[in-house]
Description:
58% of the residues lie in helices and 2% in strands. It is mostly helical and 170 residues long. It has one domain: Cytochrome Bc1 Complex, Chain D, domain 2, CATH 1.10.760.10.
Amino acid sequence: MVLALYWRKTRCAPGGSPRAQASSLPRPKTGAGTAAVLAAGLLCLSGVAIAGEPARDAILDTYARQAKAGTPDFDGFSAARGEALYRGPHAGGNPQTPACASCHTADPRMPGRNVKSGRPIEPMAVSVEPSRFTDAADVEKRFRRDCQNVLGRPCTAQEKGDFITFLSGR
């Protein structure tokens, strides 16, 4: 019995068995570590869905060429300008829709509702709707209609690219 107590005392003391040493170290809270790993994984997955869409990239390339032709000092699209366009408010268009967020909600990851008809609208954020901004004809049709409704004029190529850039990061 004395030998068993001696063995337990020496093996479980600091510097004793590796298992005893490992269990005596402070452990991080499981919730924080798990949340960090999940958040990193979701960021990686959403980045793949956003960055890997050739059709959306082709649409953005077209708008970049058009923007360069109209503005020689064009230096790329801006998510910040796209967000300002999305959130508004803007004058000149329909007073019921002074911003894209009027129908699409302040959070573009959430479904919206058409102010006039009440028809539901799928979320605008690419992270929620990966097929968003992948059909060039549909994108142009919607910009033509919605820019006139919100701004009272057609959107420029730079505004279109900024808008898509903003929503591609959401």
